Give the backbone structure.
Amino acid sequence: MDHKFLHGVPSTAPVLDARMVRTRAALRDALLALLDEKSFDDISIREIAARSGTGYATFFRHYETKSALLNDIAAAEIAALIGLCMPILWGADSRAAARTLCDYVESRSMLWSALLTGGAAGTMRGEFIRQAGLIPPGDVKPDSWLPADLRVVYGVSATVEILAWWLSRRDTYSSEQIAEILDRLVITPSLTPD
Amino acid sequence: MDHKFLHGVPSTAPVLDARMVRTRAALRDALLALLDEKSFDDISIREIAARSGTGYATFFRHYETKSALLNDIAAAEIAALIGLCMPILWGADSRAAARTLCDYVESRSMLWSALLTGGAAGTMRGEFIRQAGLIPPGDVKPDSWLPADLRVVYGVSATVEILAWWLSRRDTYSSEQIAEILDRLVITPSLTPD
Amino acid sequence: MDHKFLHGVPSTAPVLDARMVRTRAALRDALLALLDEKSFDDISIREIAARSGTGYATFFRHYETKSALLNDIAAAEIAALIGLCMPILWGADSRAAARTLCDYVESRSMLWSALLTGGAAGTMRGEFIRQAGLIPPGDVKPDSWLPADLRVVYGVSATVEILAWWLSRRDTYSSEQIAEILDRLVITPSLTPD
Amino acid sequence: MDHKFLHGVPSTAPVLDARMVRTRAALRDALLALLDEKSFDDISIREIAARSGTGYATFFRHYETKSALLNDIAAAEIAALIGLCMPILWGADSRAAARTLCDYVESRSMLWSALLTGGAAGTMRGEFIRQAGLIPPGDVKPDSWLPADLRVVYGVSATVEILAWWLSRRDTYSSEQIAEILDRLVITPSLTPD
DNA sequence: CTCTAATCGAGACGGTACGTCGCGTCTTACG
DNA sequence: CGTAAGACGCGACGTACCGTCTCGATTAGAG
């Protein structure tokens, strides 16, 4: 069985063959390169394989789906982002958290542009919601006017939407301006108690 | 040329052949019927044609794309929704506008579930934004902290997101609850002046 | 359903689309051309499609299998051969029948070389046996020392074998010599009564 | 180089490692077991390796081809058969030779069924012809009406054909009946002088 | 009774053909 | 003579098997 260790928690990764590491990296890089050129939906698995210099069938030895590959890329990036912002948010400084988030995205704007554009956004958002849902809920009252799971879905969707809009208008707005918008439009309203 | 009248504004539609009217209605009904069964992406043009009782090639005589057909359906529905809500919103009663919107969606929940689920949501949102962008901007100051086009994109996206979340949890929340959420989370924050 | 009329009796062919006639002819010609170059097993469906100038998927619109295409070619050829030989054989002149058979094969030796060489021979023999089995059994006693179906299988197999051997040694033996061998080795022994 | 001793004459085999002997036996047994279940062509090398309990690559350490493995099995069996029949045939008792042959085949009918059915028959016949061709030609006149190499090809092919037909109709005809058929149909005609 | 090299299992890899599907175009036959 | 049916070229899909290759981990047989 080829996919034995594909879907487990990466931290327990039981010594992957060096070739597999190389191949996966090649696949990831190829997808990112292609995302700079065209939308996710317009990229075929054949193209990714060709670009990565691996065989077509090899793709399926590592990922079940085009989206699965994207997820692999996205998961790490999203985890980094969340790890960066949440501590600040827990410190109750929502504006600083928003600022940190925007700065991070701006510093890797090429990547995030690719990830939030085209058909990739859906997968990204899904992974985003998944990771956000895993965050311990803090001291929010359970029966708030805003259901907890909607808070997550809404927060992620609105954030992603605003970032996508920002990234599509490169160099028009500063990280600071977007952070303010994000804070006033998304974070503060969704944290307001009854 | 076959597609003479496909892409004009429907209001100026220069006398549609009765057969074309019938065929288009059949295609629309077929798509809606299929949307009750499976996601938009999983529906093929061949299926729509077969279900509608028309020939496969006939589809292309009326619509360039599967999305174009969906748009045809969505446009009318969205226009109705906007026509319903905006007057109230201009009357500055945002809560009442939200309530009207939610009631309308609830009254046609099957249709809206189909439209906001699966791959259809993207097309829907696009048409929504298009129509929302056509609304005269009112007396909003141009250099607000919130750029006008982002206000539209954000308002539509957030609304669509919340509605989709609501519709996917049928019978858990009342129209009134969602209206409150919508008002507090989306409308009020985005209308707050500096 | 595409294959509606693929497997019926060709004589009742219910008006085939002119394009289908053209496409099938192209496929048949392509296979024959390729059989001149390499063995049947070494020819891929992709090759046949490419050579014939048709699309790959189009092949399957006409034939379920590579062998089915070969059968289409073989059936007509075999029918002609049987139609030629059997009357003479029923006239009890086995040597003349053998001679007619060998002459016919020699006159189309390129085609028959292709058909009896490589993996094609198996399909050929199958169709040959099928058609030979349909011939009314004549006045042979049912409980002969030689079972009727074995007579058919053996007669065809031995004949095919000898012809294949002959065709692979082009220009070494005359049609007349092979006819004598065929008569003495196959026909006469299998017609000998108890 | 791995294949050092694969293709030499086995009699000179320079001390095979005990492991190699075991592995080859396992491969042979696996193929035979699979031949009881499905046709030779439908058996993949991967299947043979899995069934034999050896690694996939190990197959290629011992045999270049699926057919090569089959040949290995067939060669011994055919040699035994020939060793049994030829002495009797040289004693000019063709009927007894035929009888011996049929009895031997019947006593190992499972094996021979497998060998003469499916795609294996071609390889079998090839090896059969090869070994039969090595037999010293006896006192047959060179310029007989029947060329010597055709006599071999024909004799083997016809015999194989009749045996295959027999084995596919298990328990319908006795070894004695088939021996008579074989004698009258194949051996006697091909030994008749001018 | 070691030690060293052959042999093994496992399976990743680049290829390539398979048969299916949906696309959008273009040809046909029929009413 | 226009229109509905559907054949067509195209190309991606995911699967299977090919034969090659690189790994350790046994495990035999020579010393």
